[in-house]
C-alpha cells in the first residue's frame, strides 16, 4: 500500500520479537505504542468486530489501567516499545470514571507525570491520546486543557485525534496552534456529516489544511486510523490514495 510507519496497540497480542521481525521484513518502523496488555488488545479486537459491548470492553481496560496495575502495565509497555524500536509509550484512552470529577482528574495528572518520569528514565517519551470526552468541562475548565496545562511539557507529549476532537465539537486547528511543539503525533481519520468514521478524504474534514497546520506545529508522525469499518483494508487503501493525490 505504501505505508512506512505503523503505530501499535501493545504488540497486537503477539510476542513483540515476532512483531519486530515482521516490521523489519516489510521495511516498516513504528513510532508509538498504545500500551495494551494481551487481554486488553484481545478485548479491543472483539469490540472492533462488534462481538462485545463498549461497556464490556471498557471493563477490561479499566482493570489494566487501574491504579493497582498501571505501573506494571507501563513497565511491560516500555519493554515492548524497546523491542519494537518505538519512541512514544502511550496512554490510549481515558475512561469516563477516570475523568469524572476534579479530584480524580488531579490523580491522573499526577500519574501522567509519574509515567513521564518512568519513560524518560528508559530513554523513551510518554504521550497520551484524546477521544471526545476529554473536551467536556469540569467547572469552567476543559478536561483536556487541564491535562496539557498541568503535566510536564518536556516529559508528557500529546497525540491529537482529528476525528474525536471534531466529534466533540472542538477545532483541531485550535489545539495544533495552542500546543505547538507539545503535540507530536496525530491520528488522521475523517468524519461523516452524521458523526461516523470515514476513510480519509471521504468525510467533512479539511484534511489539507489540518496537515499544513500539523507541519507548522511540529508534528512528527501522521497515522491513518479508522476505529471501525466493514472494509478496513479498503479504508486504509483509499486513505493513502487520497493523501498521495492531495498532498503527495
TrEMBL record:
Domain Xylose isomerase-like TIM barrel as annotated: residue spans: 72-245
The alphabetical list of record keywords is: Isomerase
Please indicate if the UniProt record lists Isomerase as a keyword: yes
Source organism superkingdom: Bacteria
Cite the Pfam families for this sequence: AP_endonuc_2
Give GO MF terms, alphabetically: isomerase activity
Q: Which PANTHER family match?
A: HYDROXYPYRUVATE ISOMERASE, INOSOSE DEHYDRATASE
This protein is called Sugar phosphate isomerase/epimerase
